[in-house]
Amino acid sequence: MTDQASSQSDILAGYAAGPDHLEAALAGLSAADLDLALDGDSWSIRQIVHHIADGDDIWKEFVKRAVGNPEGEFSLAWYWQIGQDEWARRWAYEQREIEPSLALFRASRAHVVQLLTHRPDAWSHSLLICWPGGPAEQTSVEWVVAMQARHVVGHVNDIRRIRAAHGK
Q1: What is the C-alpha to C-alpha distance for residues 121 and 47, in angstroms, rounded to an integer?
Q2: Domain of 145?
Q3: Could you give the number of structural domains in the chain?
Q4: pLDDT in tens, 25-80
Q5: What b-and-e string marks burial along 136-158, b requiring 16 or more CB atoms within 10 Å of the CB?
């Protein structure tokens, strides 16, 4: 196995483990506990869960487009035009139950893992992305999958900090 294949295997394993890590961080919390936050200016656990699922769903589209049409472009201008807090408000993160988002997250991750397992050549596929305030650049499937794997870990750590701050 080459270093690149090993690295991709590690990335994919970390990516696939995301739902398990998130659910472990949520274990034992009551419905009321999901509304705990570090302070009045930070997101609650419930909001973080919805953010993770929605972000993952958005980036899943990138992977699918890159696998299917690696000569294409990927635009998130519609998303980046509005701040994260406003999306959380518009998508009712504070009011919604988390179970559908957890199911979506688990299904999206399994879908991408299956796709990349059957199309190992797709790791190097890329799409042109116009980043906010920066130049357009080719962004690879490998970079996106690794970024999304790290994204969950960061938010799982946020949830653990919230739980610790509240003795949960």
Answers
A1: 35
A2: 3-165
A3: 1
A4: 999 999 999 999 999 899 999 999 999 999 999 999 999 999 999 889 998 888 88
A5: eeebbbbebbbebbebbeebbeb
**Per-residue tokens: 158:** 């946020």
Smallest CA-to-CA distance from 21 within 106, 86, 82 is with: 106
pLDDT digits (tens, 9 = 90+) for 140-152: 999 999 999 999 9
Backbone φ and ψ for 127, nearest 5 degrees, come out as: -130, 155
How is residue 165 written in tokens?
A: 């701050």
Q: Can you tell me the distance from the alpha carbon of 113 to that of 29, in angstroms, rounded to the nearest whole number? A: 28
CA contacts within 13 A on the Cβ side of 6? 3
Which residue's structure tokens are 């270093």? 3
Give the pair of three-digit tokens for residue 34.
């999901």
Which CATH number belongs to the domain containing residue 118 in this structure? 1.20.120.450
Q: Considering the entire predicted model, what is its pTM? A: 0.93
Q: Which residue has the tokens 């696998």?
A: 67
* Cβ neighbours for 158, distance < 8 A, ≥ 6 positions apart: 43, 48
